Amino acid sequence: MNSYATLTFIYTLFTFISISILCLSFKKKMDESAIYFLISEICMGITSGTIFLININTLSASSPWTGIPILSALGAEAAILFSILSLAKNIQKKWFILVMLIIASITVFIEMMRADLEPRLVILMISICLTTLFSINYWVCRFQLPVALGQNQFMRWFTWFELGMVVYGAMRILGYFSPTPIRPWETPSAIALIAFSFYLVLGTFRYISYIGLRISWINPASPTQNPLNRPLVNAIEEKDQLLRGLIASNRVIGISALASSLAHQLSQPLTTIALRADTIRRDLTKSTDDKQFVSSLDEISEQSTKLALLVQNLRQLFGSRSYEFTSVNLQKITDEIIDIVEPSLQAKKIILNKEYIGNQEIYGDSIQIQQVLINILNNAIDELTENQPNHKIISIRLESNEKFAIITIADNGSGISSSALSTMFELYKTSKKSGLGVGLWLCKTIIERHHGFISASNDPHGGAIFKIEIPLYLGLNH
User: Fold this and answer.
1) 430 pLDDT above the threshold of 70
2) Which of 87, 199, 250, 298 gives the lowest tally of CB atoms within 10 Å of its CB?
3) Which residues, listed in sequence order, are joined to residue 329 by a DSSP beta bridge?
4) What is the enclosing helix (H) or strand (E) of 120?
5) How far apart are CA 20 and CA 29, in angstroms?
């Protein structure tokens, strides 16, 4: 067995192992680039396997057996070209089929001319065809890929290995002028052995570079996930979600500052209106008995006072920066939140039902609990507005057991999908198109910080139910 047989046997073994690794790595979920690269590896295996069989005299060094390695070697380089192009753009399969038909035609032509031409000229023709494909592959990798892909470290290495293939092709062409031509069978010359060893090493490292590329590369224009780059895709998605969350948080901070500023600006005029209305009422009571005027002034004073309290609640909700756990009246902070959302309920014709059983005192931070309540209420309002049932109803029920105050907020919307039910409290999980998946996660974090529990379920009669349990205030025990 000559040296060619040894080299080609080793490379054939490597190629079919690499094919198996490629298939197992992608777990039968190959995209177009991986499919083309798999075709290339199969062609390389056929090339080296056929040459191995010729060199151990199992196949004869004549047509049609000599045509098989020519067709598969050229086909391997064409598949490499389409594999790389597929990473950056969508390539129609018809172009690959057309290229393979052209390669098949060239192979048939060379084999038909083999009997009429001297072997050295046939080798030159094959070498020119291979070098042309090597050069096209290098040109595409070097100059035709998007900047982001071209700058990938593994893609740079892949490009250098393609340039090495061009050098190998040039060696094959220059072999035409040497006393002994470089051909892949019979007893090899030293130059031929070096050339083919160089080719097999380049093919091996080109395969390794491609695997590294698929692990580290994600197309920013149209991100795709494969089993090799899944961890990277997940990391990028988490980074993007975190960035969106930071942007949203910054926006909320701005809104909070604006709300606090507006509340401060509105507080004084509203107080002045209430005081002036009360003063005018007292003066009118002394000089006239017109009950209509007095009643109107009473209503102005009452509504101004109510609006001032609402502004105070908003200022407290948006302006608080420190958290303090203490005794909190659950009914009081719930009513404050209801006052805030009442205009939205009225505008969207949503009926709010309240049921307070007992008068619970909980141990916690009132602002944080109110943030949870307003978040869940706003979600219920959004759900009812989007699905528009005939009668929009939100129900709030306060009750308690021996250890916990229990808040139940229910609506008569479409409920929660089974797929969302198990993940809705996870960070960045949302079913809303414009949602960030932060609100319910924050609710869960706040309630757990209060050593409580929050859960969601579907009402058998329709709608969603949120249940919150918060430890009762036990006086000195805390």
Assistant:
1) no
2) 250
3) 361
4) helix 119-143
5) 14
Average pLDDT, the chain: 82
DSSP symbols for 275-293: HHHHHHHHHHHHH---HHH
Q: Which helix (DSSP H) or strand (DSSP E) does residue 154 occupy?
A: helix 153-174
Closest to 237 measured CA to CA, from 228, 227, 225, 247: 225
- Rounded to whole angstroms, the Cα distance separating 265 from 176 reads 91
Question: Tens digit of pLDDT for each residue in 306-336?
Answer: 666 666 655 655 555 556 788 999 999 999 8
Smallest CA-to-CA distance from 361 within 322, 324, 404 is with 404
What does residue 352 show for φ and ψ, rounded to 5 degrees?
Answer: -110, 120
Residue 327 · residue 357 · CB < 8 Å: no
Q: Tell me: the pLDDT tens digits for 221-262?
A: 555 666 666 676 676 666 666 666 655 555 555 555 555 566
For 23, 96, 410, 415, 440, the CA distances from 240, given in Å and listed in that order, are 30, 36, 33, 29, 19
DSSP 225: -
Quick count: other Cβ atoms within 10 Å of Cβ 132?
14
Amino acid, res. 322: S
**What does the pLDDT look like over 10-29, one tens digit per residue?**
899 999 898 888 888 777 67
Total-model pTM = 0.56
